[in-house]
Amino acid sequence: MSIKHLSAGSQEVPLQKGKLRLYSMRFCPYAQRAHLVLNAKNIPHDVVYINLKSKPEWYLEKVASGKVPAISVDGVELYESLIIADFLDEKYPDRPLHVRGDPLRKALDRLLADRFSRVTSLLYKLYAGSTPNMDPAILESIFDEMDYFEKELAKRGTPFFFGDQPGMVDYMIWPWCERLEMVRILGGDQFKVPRDRFQRMFAWSKGMLEDSAVKAIYCTPEQHAKFLQSYKAGTPDYDNILV
């Protein structure tokens, strides 16, 4: 396991027998998806963090995409967060994150997780774009998209999208919800999420924060903001919470 993010010129960390290997970046929301699934299902694994600005040569040879997350299992590397999440849920059947025996519900949940990509793309445009100031109009578009998820929770009548505990949809959308408070830190109170508009999502978020899988990889809004500021300055501080 690497404590710090490995960069060009580094040596590959030997695989640990009996453990799945996750290649990650501590502030990548897509990589966080893989962490959440591994933690929720208690899958033995170790983590190697990758410096995405200066990627190790051995990593580029090992993982065709050069992206994170990636996992090494049985001598094969897999990448793309949703593919990894589904693979892990099928290979390790304990604590299922998709509903078993209901292919229609599983398909609908996949569509729901995919719909959240509308929120993620807008969030990236809001806080990671080239303009120095964030546009409140983009935030309103984000809220318009999140209305769908507020209504979906009401329709399902459960504290989580999966039911009484978090499941695949919950873990797949959580990384960006974790970062919403960061937006207020960066832009001020005009970027605050309206609690009265998203009462169910706020209750859902409170429940997610109590989940052990979330706690194990959680970053505070301040930590997310600090990293984003370093990223936009061209000198991403990957290790600011690892030491």
TrEMBL record:
Gene Ontology cellular-component terms listed: cytoplasm
Molecular function in Gene Ontology: glutathione dehydrogenase (ascorbate) activity; glutathione transferase activity
Keyword list, A-Z: Oxidoreductase, Transferase
Annotated GST N-terminal domain residues: 18-96
Gene3D superfamilies recorded: 1.20.1050.10, Glutaredoxin
Domain GST C-terminal: residue ranges: 102-228
InterPro entries per the UniProt record, alphabetical: Glutathione-S-Trfase_C-like, Glutathione-S-Trfase_C_sf, Glutathione_S-Trfase, Glutathione_S-Trfase_N, GST_omega, GST_Omega/HSP26, Thioredoxin-like_sf
Gene Ontology BP annotations: glutathione metabolic process
Keyword Transferase: yes
Oxidoreductase is among the record's keywords: yes
PANTHER family referenced in this protein's UniProt entry, alphabetically: GLUTATHIONE S-TRANSFERASE OMEGA, PTHR43968
Protein family membership: Belongs to the GST superfamily. Omega family.
Designated name of the protein: Glutathionetransferase
Species: Riptortus pedestris (Bean bug)
Lineage of origin: Eukaryota, Metazoa, Ecdysozoa, Arthropoda, Hexapoda
